[in-house]
Amino acid sequence: MAPVQVKKICCIGAGYVGGPTCAVIALKCPDIIVTIVDLNQARIDAWNSKDFSLPIYEPGLEDVVRQARGRNLFFSSDVDKGIREADLIFVSVNTPTKKNGVGAGFAADLNYVELATRRIAAVAESSKIVVEKSTVPCRTAESMRTILEANSKPNCKFQILSNPEFLAEGTAIDDLFSPDRVLIGSLQTPEGKDACASLAEVYAHWVPRERILTVGLWSSELSKLAANAMLAQRISSINALSAICEATGANIDEVAHAVGRDSRMGPKFLKASVGFGGSCFQKDILNLVYLSESLHLPEVAAYWRQVVDMNEYQKRRFSKRVVDTLFNTITGKRIAVLGFAFKADTGDTRESAAITLVKDFVAERALVSLYDPKVPHDQIWLDLAEAMPVTPSATIQKQVQIYGSALEACKNAEAVVIATEWKEFKEIDWETVYAGMNKPAFVFDGRMIVDAEKLRDIGFKVTVIGRGERL
Ligand code: NAD
Prior knowledge:
Blueprint: E1 8-12, H1 18-28, E2 33-37, H2 41-48, H3 61-68, E3 73-76, H4 79-85, E4 88-91, H5 111-123, E5 128-132, H6 140-151, E6 158-162, H7 172-177, E7 182-186, H8 190-203, E8 212-216, H9 217-248, H10 252-260, H11 281-294, H12 298-325, E9 334-338, H13 353-363, E10 367-371, H14 377-387, H15 393-399, E11 400-402, H16 406-410, E12 415-418, H17 423-426, H18 430-436, E13 442-445, H19 452-458, E14 461-464
Parallel strand pairs: 1-2, 1-4, 2-3, 4-5, 5-6, 7-8, 9-10, 9-12, 10-11, 12-13, 13-14
Helix pairs in contact: 1-3, 5-6, 9-11, 9-12, 11-12, 12-13
The structure holds nicotinamide-adenine-dinucleotide.
Nicotinamide-adenine-dinucleotide is lined by residues 12-18, 37-40, 43, 79, 92-95, 112, 115-116, 119, 134-135, 165, 167, 169, 279-280.
């Protein structure tokens, strides 16, 4: 296979990664036809909706889709046709943590990757470049190659590339427009390098060449896990220090600022919080833990495991602080939880810290008033039912209410808990909130976004992560 000029791309998986990534490729490469396919018809219908009610919320995404959809960007549930017509196929399907069986709770569930790969082998009538976009354990490309070679037609040859995605939800479009780097891993054979060059040409439509890194397949696969593990490790490190701050009177903001001024470290990702969430950090670290154990490296596994354990500890510590501060009981008390998404500027709730907080408050028999500007109410009920499988849904619905604004959610509450750093929570009319709450009125800032002094002047009793001030 000599380097091919990519003319038609198919992306299997129209989710948080496949959708935005391939929409941006279509926008930036008007000469390439991009078809994003998914088995989930409802998702495809939403991508194709006339009023652009897209299935995911991401700033700037609608604008990209408006420009490219129908021109050279298409969404379809005809997976086979998408595969057949493409010369390059992204596999961007979900790779959740396995729930049952061998490696349950740690290993990546590669079932979706395998099914997509088998479909490619069964349907393809010509040679293709197959690109792992999903985050996968190191050496997954080898399994994909074995499956493709064993099942494909004799005239079909496949080159497998690894091209992990580094976008962050909430800033996905900016990240895709100007990525820190695009990583492409290939076998170091002439054919592998040709395929790598073909994909690099696609990105070179808008990404400077020096930001397109080409490496070996296994390095590329491992780099994605390593990047997420090290980002999460930074958060767990600052959160561990926040506990020491609370016990000593040191201020985590000041500590983070001082530490981040070291040019070897830099200031980013040093914000203490109630804990990291999202579909990737925990899953990818657990994946690394499982990989390390499989490679008989128990000390390495234990090292990474601690990053996740610290995150769980931070969430539990925060819930306990709420209960302790509210005179050791929240039974029957109304707690307003502001934010349900795992971070601002996304409607994604996967592994959101808010889920754990609400679960803890419900277990303590509190009444929870919830508000999030973007998360659909159905999603909230689904998440809570999943988080509390043995609690009857009638009980959950009796104790939890969802409101249409922060002000409504805070009415008659004893405490406000900020779980997501939505900008609008910084700008709430706190005087009105205070007037409508039971007294003493408490605020627990799990994202360090409020002006604690201003709130104290109003009359609130304020608790901020990583600050040891006494009330
Ligand atoms: P997602 O669940 O939002 O989307 C995956 C989509 O794939 C779903 O719509 C599903 O229906 C579809 N799908 C699964 N099997 C299929 C098949 N055989 N044929 C057609 N469609 C199929 O997941 P996501 O958040 O987009 O993540 C995808 C991958 O990217 C994961 O491996 C994830 O770890 C990785 N990743 C995610 C992010 C993120 O921020 N979400 C960032 C970087 C990497």
